[in-house]
Design brief:
By secondary structure, the protein is of the alpha+beta class. The protein contains 17 helices and 27 strands. A hairpin with an 8-residue loop joins β21 (about 405-410) and β22 (about 415-420). α2 packs across α13 (about 395-405) and α11 packs antiparallel against α12 (about 375-380). The structure holds glycyl-adenosine-5'-phosphate.
Length: about 525
């Protein structure tokens, strides 16, 4: 893919290209849009489906080889978006899925308190400016405010004293003292299935696909020939009432997730945690993402979600975070938190009617052979599996692939930018052009198009000049263009043009299909 550094890519230009070329549109645009919602256009849908299908292929159809040398076992699922609301009470989302918020009484703006940074002097007193994390402090504002600049240090809004808060000037405000104390806010969007709209009828649009998997653990165990360790994978929409949706599709209120819950014996959980951390990092490289733009980052204890005892994020250097990184996927050790929370228990006031544990017959036999005593075998062979969860965003993956592929090409004739997708993920795999619309060229080009479209999404284009046709294909990320010209009619060869290098070579018409098959398999 591209060699342009993320710092040199301009998000506004990428967003404009995505709109102009049919990748991503603002949702309900003709009514002024709706903050945090996006529509995927024809090419964006194709790109998203290609990434989705690759994830499914690598997780469900052909999962990796495990640490013991055997392929791991993973099955797929497609659960309902709306589940019984008790799901979210017991999962901890009703009580725990909250973001701290701060309001600005001067500008009426609202911010995630943990994303606000203030700059204080050594003594920590006096007036201070607040900025959003990841936003460059505006130099003029800083100079005007502090006059001569003392040594300033950044402090999270979550850690400041009441006095410092009273002295802080909000990110968009002019005077100090307008920021409120942080308050919590539940991120789940609710809805009311059925005819009655009262509290008892309230249900939630899922904020993660994971819970549908936990609710079906027993169903899958009882109906499929699976044994622990095994995984259940799911791709689908999730909804979060994000306080500050921003950075294009990075943080939206409706998005798609690709999640897999891997159920394993408790004493093997560390081994599987490390296995999935490494596998998932490799998977992002397989999308064509440059390794220097990816990192693994362990969560600090105070960052961990309510269900997790350890988590490592795969992070990407987005143009808007560079030179820093932003989250792409989390690999979490969820322990037995969720299966326990959804298991029947009168004493613990749980509403579920099922016990979500597992009888490990192989372990029982092993312990018997080792001569372990009966009571211990009974206790150790039945357990609540531990869960390792690689959880990523499909729509965030689309953003990463777009950012990575986006390449300014100021010196090129025609296109100012190209999308340099790895061929496998390009929405259109090849353009097929007659050089001119006469002399039998359209007929040969049409025949080639009909042959290739049986196997891949390809486009026939006979309109405009050849330069404009190439430029359009470059902008939408089509890796190869085949042009039928005068020579084709005599020697049956066509020109193949490479999107990234602009190199052209002639190959025989009979070889086009094999050429493309080889390039798309890489
Ligand atoms: N089941 C665990 C879970 O949902 P998460 O870190 O909250 O964990 C997993 O979400 C992934 O989903 C994130 O790494 C990110 O890629 C994606 N994601 C989360 N919130 C998102 C949002 N508001 N917009 C787009 N993608 C989001």
């Amino acid at each position: 893919m591209t060699t342009t550094a993320p710092e040199e890519k301009n998000m506004d230009e990428l967003v404009a290209l995505c709109k102009r070329r049919g990748f991503v549109y603002p949702a309900s645009e003709i009514y002024g849009g709706l903050r945090g919602f996006w529509d995927y256009g024809p090419l964006g849908t194709a790109l998203k489906n290609n990434i989705r299908d690759w994830w499914w292929r690598c997780m469900v159809d052909c999962p990796p080889i495990g640490p013991d040398g055997e392929p791991v076992s993973i099955v797929g699922l497609d659960s309902a978006i709306i589940q019984n609301p008790k799901t979210w009470e017991h999962s901890g989302h009703v009580g725990g899925f909250n973001d701290p918020l701060v309001d600005c009484t001067e500008t009426k703006k609202r911010y995630r308190a943990d994303h606000v940074i203030i700059w204080v002097n050594e003594a920590g007193d006096g007036p201070h400016l607040a900025f959003m994390e990841n936003e460059e402090p505006n130099e003029r504002r800083v100079r005007k405010f502090y006059k001569e600049t003392p040594d300033l240090k950044p402090v999270s809004f979550m850690d400041i004293t009441d006095e410092q808060r009273a002295n802080a000037v909000g990110p968009d405000a002019a005077k100090p003292g307008s920021l409120t104390e942080p308050r919590t806010f539940n991120l789940m969007l609710d809805t009311y299935p059925g005819p009655i709209r009262d509290e008892d009828a309230k249900a939630y649009l899922r904020p993660e696909t994971a819970q549908g998997i936990f609710l079906n653990f027993k169903n899958v165990l009882d109906t499929m020939r699976v044994k622990v360790p095994f995984g259940i994978a799911q791709i689908g929409k999730s909804f979060r009432n994000e306080v500050t949706p921003r950075n294009f599709i990075f943080r939206s209120r409706e998005f798609e997730q690709m999640e897999m819950e891997f159920f394993c014996p408790p004493d093997e959980s560390q081994k599987w945690y490390e296995f999935w951390r490494d596998e998932r990092f490799k998977w992002w490289l397989s999308l064509g993402v440059d390794e220097k733009n990816l990192i693994l980052r362990d969560h600090d204890d105070d960052e961990l979600a309510h269900y997790s005892s350890a988590c490592v994020d795969v992070e990407y250097k987005y143009p808007f975070t560079a030179p820093g990184y932003g989250e792409l996927e989390g690999v979490a050790h969820r322990g037995n938190y969720d299966l326990t929370a959804h298991s029947k228990s009168k004493e613990k006031n749980r509403d579920s009617n099922a016990k979500l544990d597992y009888f490990d017959q192989e372990l029982q036999v092993r312990l018997q052979n080792e001569g372990v005593d009966k009571a211990e075998i009974k206790e150790r062979s039945r357990y609540v599996p531990h869960v390792i969860e690689p959880a990523s965003g499909l729509t965030r993956a689309v953003l990463v692939v777009l950012c990575e592929a986006f390449t300014p090409t100021p010196d090129r004739d025609g296109s100012k930018y190209i999308l340099s997708f790895k061929p496998k993920f390009a929405p259109i795999k090849a353009g097929i052009f007659p050089l001119v619309n006469k002399d039998g060229m359209p007929e040969v080009a049409q025949k080639l198009y009909m042959q290739l479209r049986d196997r891949w999404p390809v486009e026939y284009d006979g309109k405009q000049s050849i330069g404009k046709r190439y430029a359009r294909m470059d902008e939408i990320g089509t890796p190869f263009c085949f042009t039928i010209d005068g020579d084709t009619l005599t020697d049956q060869t066509v020109t193949v043009r490479d999107r990234d290098t602009l190199a052209q070579e002639r190959i025989h018409l009979d070889k086009v299909e094999a050429f493309l098959a080889e390039k798309l398999a890489e």
